[in-house]
Amino acid sequence: MAKSNPLYQWQLSENLDPETGERFPQLSAIALQLLFNRHLTQQEDIDRFLNPDYGQDQYDPFLFNDMHKVVARIQQALKNQEKIVVHGDYDADGVSSAAILFKTLKKIGAQVDVYLPHRDTEGYGLNKNTVQTLFDNNTNLIITVDCGISNQPEIAQASALGMEVIVTDHHAQPPTLPDKALAILNPVIAGEKYPFKNLAGVGVAFKLCQALITTFKLGEAFEKWLLDIVSIATIADYVNLISENRVFTKYGLMVLRKNKRPGLQQLFATMGVDAKTADTQTVSYKIAPHLNAAGRMKHANAAFELLIEEDAGKAKVLAESLAQTNKKRQAISEKAAITAQLQVKTQQDDYLVVVEDKTCPVGLVGLVAGKITTETNRPALVITRSGEEIMGSGRSIEQFNLIKSLQTMDELFVKYGGHPMACGFTLKNEKALAEFILRIKDLAKEQLAQEDLRKILHIEKQLNFTEINWELVALLEQFSPYGEGNAEPLFLSRKVKLLAISAVGKKADHLKLVVSQGGIKRPGIGFGFGKLAKELAVGTMLDLVYRVSVNEWNGNREIQLEVKDIKSLS
Q: Domain RecJ OB spans what residues (predicted)?
């Protein structure tokens, strides 16, 4: 039998310092290590993390510099019966942001419509043709959600036409801010005093909703029933699940499990998922892809309508349609991924990968880029064509800031936007494309080292099998919800004995095993490790990296190890 080498470089966290352990004798060694790994070493921070309080662990929405001005303008719009349009985006964050603000504005009696752009024909953010259309439809006030900060020309156009624009966004500050906007709510722009800088677009929109709920005395119940949508978008947009985002997600998942929305109820039914078990994985791999599929393949309006629909029959039709759209998206994505793989192979020595695929739908370039980055641990850009336009999307690793890189070559783009880890852009012409590829590859080569490109598994603690028990499962539940900024813990166990092994799954691509240490047996599952069934012999001694999970079937529950990497010792 062949020896199995690990797929990743293993990085074991620094051991907890004894002084910290002595200060918290009531906490277990495992709990203390996990807290230490998250830089949580003060009682107040630990309490806030382990037991987030909805009422206390949020910031006052009126800490935003312009929040009073925004609320006053909305009050004026109500008084004068002005028409408000909420302008969203076509992804799960933008759609969700539009849904909660629409619901709140409706509740206070506003005349409000929602406008979501078409990804292919209009692109991201405000569009000059859209601005004209909104003006022609007698719009008085535009409120952007999850977009707008990069739309200085379009907002100037709206202002010249006599409309006012309020920007709510969370994207990075561009070189030129929209100075003709009436107000800007964006935690990351220069001079903004709002303390928490990692809100998703839906987080900013929710802070506006909170300000309106307080001003118009709508009550806490109305606010909390928005949290299911807030949690979905916060998870879907991959912002750090810390501070307020942790509060939104923890309480939002509780609401999601009991949700009253016909649209989400029907979506759960269509997906065959029990809402009562919903967690961050459910959102990331089930709900968010369905909501995103609408904007990627057709129009985001379908996802928006699902979130606000109150009729169960109509909601069922919408949910089933979204499911079909998502299946189509999956099929086209697989085809695009195969095309991409051929180009990736020719760039194995490059620090950044660029794939050009003229047939890839604009809505899928980000997905393909993300897949490449996950598989290669390199920044990746996927570029396609939409009519005469050259459009692309990028995904990155922590060591390479995409949006800052794009800002150094601002003159090459018709428009662009994004974050350090993700971007979208439209290039001016073929010459700009060629220059862009050269310059961004050079930047990556300058800024990245070979060690930055190695795939690393961050291991929280080495465990003996005696420590893997239901008490540990309960502790790990307390550390949830998991996501960006709070990864689900991975553990290492050394010198475990392989007792049984087999390949499972339709394509035999997964691994089922039983291992033991010190007389304690544990079942395990390794997704994507099926080939090792022929390479590892029963009796082999192994080092395992894994997450602790619970396998449930026929009313039974057992602890199992979800294997992330294997090293054979014999």
A: 460-565
